[in-house]
Amino acid sequence: MTPSAASTIMPSIKDAYKDFLNSECGMKSYNRFKCTLYGPGDSLVECLDAEVLGKMPFAVGSKLNICDVGGGDGVRIRRILRYLHDRFNLRFSLDFVEQSSAQIRAFECRDICGFTEVKKHETLFEKWWTGSTYDLVFLIHSIFAFDDSDSFDKVLKLANSNGTIVVVSNAEDSFLGGLKLILDAEYSDRRFEISDVVRNLIGRGVHFDETRFQTRWTLQANDLQAGISSILDWLSLGRYQDLPSGVKQTVRRYIEAKSSPASDGLSFSEEEVVLVITGKDSQSAGAPNPPISSGAELR
Ligand SMILES: C[S@@+](CC[C@H](N)C(=O)[O-])C[C@H]1O[C@@H](n2cnc3c(N)ncnc32)[C@H](O)[C@@H]1O
Fold first, then answer.
1. Span from the CA of 99 to the centroid of ligand 1 (angstroms)
2. Mean pLDDT of the 177-202 span
3. Could you confirm whether domain 12-171+189-218+270-281 is CATH 3.40.50.150?
4. Which residue's CA is the nearest one to ligand 1's atom 4?
5. Beta partners for residue 93, in sequence order
6. CA of 138 to the centre of ligand 1 (A)
7. What is the pTM of this model?
8. Which atom belonging to ligand 1 lies closest to the Cα atom of 21?
9. To the nearest 10°, the Cα dihedral for 103, 229, 271, 256?
10. CB 68 within 8 A of CB 136
11. Is the CB of 170 under 6 A from ligand 1?
12. Which residues of 84-112 are buried (b: 16+ CB within 10 A; e: fewer)?
């Protein structure tokens, strides 16, 4: 290969994303970002509990089969299971599927083991085989590196006939969605986004419910730079400092346009999408219909 050919090969965002999350600095970057947006109490999990999970008709005292796909360091699923245990007196068997060995190592499950049997699977979801089906399947901010729609077809087969699949992601046209478009321009591919999931479900005639909520956060003047850095470091997968000055300028302008002044700082808002698919609906999925036009209204 000639040097000029080598220099024109663009990396894959999906590979870069998985590699970054398989490093200590990638994990720290993601955790800093989560703390900036969602705070120490994790407002995303609080909303999910209050708006979605707390309203589900669980049989009090029963045992549920749970699958968490791309569970990261497990902090979120632990919070969720503790909430469900406290509210409905549920017990669980958890299949935890995660491609990053660094994240799997960080998953400390002592606080849920009194009511949860945990099986960790260090593997790509696409390579994982399970003989089980599940009452609840979670994909929380974990779809972005999915190979393609086939991976999502595999998700649809995980729920049992009374089961529910819960997919959480930022909206593609949200604050973070726009930033990703700027930061990902140099990659050969693009992230698998919630709109790809929705397109797949509509194409297969699978019914789903959609809930949206806003995550709002304010960065005080003295925390502004650190807060913005935590977002940009995570979204750029640790390479923000090395980006060309033109890209950084576009990012600065974008942030100015998308934030609003607050007393002594800036306020931001991010739209989150939760898709809820029931097992009955996912199992009735047919072969995909012809693709819908890209301009179709998905909401
Ligand atoms: C942004 S993190 C979210 C982690 C966790 N769900 C949370 O909300 O904190 C995405 C996680 O999904 C994992 N992941 C991404 N694609 C995956 C795949 N195809 N198979 C297994 N894990 C995957 C990554 O390694 C990462 O830990």
1. 7
2. 94
3. yes
4. 72
5. 65, 117
6. 11
7. 0.92
8. 25
9. -170
10. no
11. no
12. bbeebebbbbbbbbbbbebbbebbebeeb
